[in-house]
Every structure is written in structure tokens, then in C-alpha cells.
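Re: zinc ion structure - here you go.
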Amino acid sequence: MRSRLVAALLLGAAIVTLGPLGCKQASNQEAAVASTQGTGLGINKAWMDTSAKPGDDWYEYTDGTWLKNTEVPADRSRVSAFWMAGEKTDAQLASLMSDIEKSSPTAGSNEARVKLFYEAYLNTQAIDAAGMAPIQADLVRFDAIGNKQQLASVLGSQIRADVDPLNNTNFQTENLFGVFVTQALKGGQVVPYILQGGLGMPEREYYLSSDPKMAQLRTAYRQYIEDLLTAAGIGDATTKAQKVYDLEMKIAKAHNTREDSENWKKASGLWSRQDFATKAPGLDWTAFFNAAQLGGVKTFEAYHPDAIVRLSALVASEPLDVWKDWLVFHQINTSADVLPSKLDSLHFAFYGTKLTGAEQQRPRAKRAIGAVNASLGDALGKLYTDKYFPASSKARIQQMVANIKAAFVKRIDAIEWMAPSTKAEAKKKVENMVVGVGYPDTWRDYSGRQVDPKNAYANLQAANLYNYKQQLAKIGKPMDRHEWWMNAQLVNAVNLPVQNALNFPAAIMQPPFFDPSADDAFNYGAIGTVIGHEISHSFDNNGAEFDATGAMRNWWTDADRKKFEQAATALANQFDQYEPFPGLHVNGKLTLSENIADVAGLAAAHDAYLASLDGKEAPTIDGFSGDQRFYIAFGQVWTEKAREAAERKQIATDGHAPGQYRALTVRNQDPWYKAFDVQPGQKLYLAPGKRVKVW
Ligand SMILES: [Zn+2]
């Protein structure tokens, strides 16, 4: 299982929807998140149950009191350390936005753009009063399509840089194709990647699966198309909805599977401009590319080559009017949040409630911040980091990153089984890795961006077009390995295989992951192990598909891969033993690559911590030695409480083991035994030969 996201590492999708915003004060949040912040201790003593024996019940020892006292809120299925940092960031952003709201920023400044965009989005009264007027010009544009060449041109004009198969792994676009711009998979030039698109539901399985729940969703989706068109005042909605739905069934059949999408090797294939016409006849590619502002591009990465062929053929075979109705529906559907509230509510009833089970729409203010993040991410990110991420924190984490990288290199050198050629490649990859800390070196320039205080729809369209043009400007230039793919104000982190780079946004650099007032023992045990985890993903069996320059090339020898897999099997067996519910075990194989990253990340972070002491004895603080604080910090990063149904679902389907078992990674670390005097006979004791060392 591929995993480049720390969000995914911490059980991803859940963090996208965080708790309520708005009224909470940042100071209360801080108090709730880290009661000991500021004391220099870093770890939360109040979370611990020191009556538990670390060698028998480690998680109870580090988190027992928190677990006893914490209730999962009614609107959530789990709470975790990650969620806490997310709540805090939400409160910070709300406070920042409130300051901007009260201010009178200079016209044309980023503050002004953020303010106007936010206010226009928030003003549902104005949005309702405007009705369908803002979108009218687009609907007229679709209505005027008179032949297939004009259709190709409009399809091209809709294309945006809205997918990402490598970094954030987002394969969904409602446009017929999606674009992603970076270095070609096999290296060399920066090219546009062309991905399949055109579906309103998340992926082809929703259309083609025989699962009864999927069949129900299809019925609901067809009805939703009709309801949305009706609410938008489009005539003959019943007939049109059926035709749009039927067309999407054909598009779904033309799509590659999700599994294929995630297989980079299947994707690799450079096409020239001419290849599209000869290999994928049907669509008027010249008209299409010209309208997509890609007319001058000579080389493309055809990410879904088979699907491109089939989708192009569909443009020729399906009636013009159906394509026009399909365009109308998707233009409304993708803009529903900035169209009259009856459309927005219909959209949520399908996408929120039917598709994900959410019962209540998030507050508009929170959604407005989300829209600013999506449309003016760096403008808000700059303001956020100016206020909440001091240069001293950045410098300190950069130093930690350098030390952890150095520790990795040393560990690679020390591996007995690895061939020298593989070692050399692995070391080169770590040494050349670009690690972005907090925020990008260069913020995106929004100086050309107009924001209309009265037209939220126009603002959204302008943002998408502006971002698309910024991505297109990269084509033909050398790859910028320092480009960021995540907002600074997001509690997350990401591994960028083609750039051989990592992004660690500022928002994750806070308790319980990072505490500037705490010493290195805490910070290496917390954020340090997260950094180590992400670095190790760059050269495990998935990361090994890309070399130090970001080109897709396998640099492992077969013998090395075999030995790596042997060490991995031991770790899989270790996790197979864990039994959260009677008869239900953690799946060691399913969670393997994440557990490997935990073992490797913890070991490298500890090495780096020791190196940071520079031969000196670590201070004892509040009765805890340096090593003790290091490991307790790690245990508290995995603080988590989930409802039983959520936990069972995670165990069955997720590549990440539940937090309480990830915390037990310490069993594989010799210094942990010494730090807590863990002896043979204790429940968590592993004989030295059974402790897994992957790197
Ligand atoms: Zn991971």
C-alpha cells in the first residue's frame, strides 16, 4: 500500500473534516491540546497513567488517563493527536480571518484578496439574490456549440490543473480530462500529464460495481442530476438527466481502474501532439489543445493511455446534444457551493449525506476558509505563517531534518545485507532530498488576480483558471524541486516522489507534534519520528521506483529486494499477533509498509536525537530521562480513540494499524528496553533477535 501522506499515516480522510470552528478561542484550544506546553517538558503528563508498567502496557502508560477521560464527540468517529492539531489550526485560521475582517487592507494586497474572496463566499444572501445570473454566460457558451469541432474547443477550454497522480494522489475531475504538470515519469522535461475524467461520482466502481449499495447510489445520482437541473431552471430535466447519466456510464466503462491509476508503471508513456490524433481518433485534438492553451506543447505524459483512446472515441460516437447537457450539469455541479442555496443543499444531500454519511453541512464560515485555502492558499498561508510559525521554529526543525537525514545515511551504511550499488543509490537519494519545512521558499504570486466582492462564482472560476495558467507556465522549464503541493496551513505532510522532496507544512509543527518550548528529547520523539517516517517512504519498496533525480527507475537489486522482504515478514508477523477485538487481528501484511516506515523513522529519529546531544548527558526533567521523554512523546503522537465500528473498518481496509499498536513500535528498539527497564517475562518484551530492524 502506497502512502505518502502523513494524513493518511494518521488515518487520512477523517482529518479533512475537523470539528466545529468559530467560537472556540485559541487559548482554550491550546490548553486542551497541551496542558504542559511552555514548561519545557513537551510530553503531556496528564495523559499518562504512571501506575501502568511500560513493559506490560505501554499505551496505557503513555496515554491511559487521556483514554479514560476522553469521549469521542457525537459528530465524530474518532479523535487523535492529529485531530487536536487540526482543531488548533482551525481556531488559528478563524482568529486570523477575524482580524482580516476587522482590518481595511490596501487594495490589491493579498489581505484584500483574501478578505474579498471570503466575504463574497460567505454572503449567501447575495448569492441567492443573484440566482443563476453569474453562471449564465457559461451556459450560453455551451448552448451555442453547433458541431463536434466547437464541442472539442469547449471541452478543451474547461480543462484545469485539477488532478495529481503522484503527490496527493487525486484522480478525480469532472472535466473530460485532467492535467497535472511536472517532470515526465522517466525523467527529463516538465510536461503536462493527461488523465481521464468526466465522472460526477468518485470513480468507475460507483458506476459498474454490482454491490447493492452502489446500485442504490446510482439511482440516487440519476435522481440528483434531475433535481439539480430542475432547481437550476433547466427545461426537460428528466430526459436530460437520463441522457447525462447514460453518457457517464459509458465514460465509466472507458476508464481505467483505480488500481491501474495507482500503478505508475502502467501510466508511463510519452505521446507527441500527433500521437493523440493517430492513436486516439474521435476528438478534434487540435481544437481541444488550442482551447486548453496546450496548442504549442509537443510532448505529453499520457497517464491513462487506454482511457484517452476510449474517451476520445466517445466524443465522436455520442450525440452532440448529450455532451452539451453533460457540460451544463457539470458546470453547475462543480460550482454548487457558490450558486443559490437550494442547489448547494441538493449537492450536499447527495455528496455529503448519500456518499459519505455526513448528516450536517459544515458551517458556511468554515467552508469559506476552505474555499480560500483552495483558491488563494499561499496568500492565506503567508499570513498564517507570519503570525503562527516563527523563524526560530523553522530553523530548529530544519536542523532536526538535517540530523535525521544524516542518521539515515549512517544506518544505510550499516546494513549488512544490502549491495554496495543499492546503498550508494539510497544514500544519494537521501542526501539529495529537498525537505520543505513550514512553507515554500517562494510564495505563489497572485498579483494578477482580480477578486469580485459581489460574485463568488466568478471568483471560483478565476481562481481555477489562474492556478491552471501558473501550472502551464512550468512546461518546458527545468523542474523546480522546491515547489510545494500543500498549503502551509494544513496539518499534513507529503512525499513528492518525482521531486525527491518532502513538504512539512507549518500547521503540523505544533503540539502534540512539536513544542518550541520543549527540549530535543520531546521534539525528536514526536515530529522527528514523523519526519523519519516520511523520509523512509522515499526508499522503501514503493519509493524505490524513483531515483535521486525523481526519474522512475528501479535501483534495487533483486537480491536486496528479497532480503528487505524477509525483514518485512518478521514485522508483519509481529503485527499479526495484535488482537484488538476477540478474534479480530491487525493485518500485518496490509499495514506492512506503514509499520516499516514507523520502525525506520523511530530508529533514525532516535539516532539523530542522540547525535544532537553531542556526547553530553540529557537532562532529567520532571523525573523523566531524555530517552524516556523521547519514547513517551512517540507514544503520545499515536494518541487516538475511535468508535468500535470505525476501528473495525480501519483494521479491515486501512494500510495503517490503529494508533495503540503503532505506539508499540518501541518494542523493536533496544534503547527503549533500557530506558524503562523492560525485562524478560513482561508482556511486551521481545528477545533481541526478535526485534525487527529494517534499516
Ligand atoms: Zn506513511
